[in-house]
Amino acid sequence: MSTTTNTARLADKYKAEVVPALMKKFSYKTVMQAPRLTKICLNRGVNGAVNDKKLIDIAVEELSNITGQKAMATLSKKISPTLNYVRLCQLVQELLYVV
């Protein structure tokens, strides 16, 4: 009976194709000099999620199919109107400074 490892396809491709290409391009002497993948994050914005909560479930299911892991849905924080006004003032000041 053969033992199979359950590694991500992206990690396998990185080790098999990208690391040798990096070693050749940058003249690395060992594999340890090549950059490593430690964490991969996927983000997705769902436009109509305010009106239809089912869209969030669909997006979570699609990301789960892509990654092979359960995706976690997080909601964006609301921005206060005063903060928007401050950002608008900063933007206007920058535009005035540029002109």
Descriptive keywords:
2 domains; mainly alpha; 99 residues; 51% helix
Can you describe this structure?
With 99 residues, the chain is mainly α. It has two domains: 6-40, no CATH class; 45-99, no CATH class. Helices cover 51% and strands 0% of the residues. The chain has three helices and no strands.
Radius of gyration: 22 Å
**Total strand count, please?**
0
Number of spatially distinct domains: 2
**Classification by helices and strands:** mainly alpha
Uncertain stretches: none
Which of globular, elongated, flat, extended, rod-shaped describes the shape? flat
Largest sheet: none
Mean pLDDT: 76
Helix content: 40-55%
Distance between the termini: 72 Å
Q: How many distinct helices?
A: 3
Strand content of the residues, in percent? under 5%
Order of helices and strands: HHH
Q: What order do the helices and strands come in, and which of them pair?
A:
Elements: H1 9-26, H2 54-67, H3 81-98
Write a brief caption for the model.
The chain has helices at residues 9-26, 54-67, 81-98. By secondary structure, the protein is mostly helical.
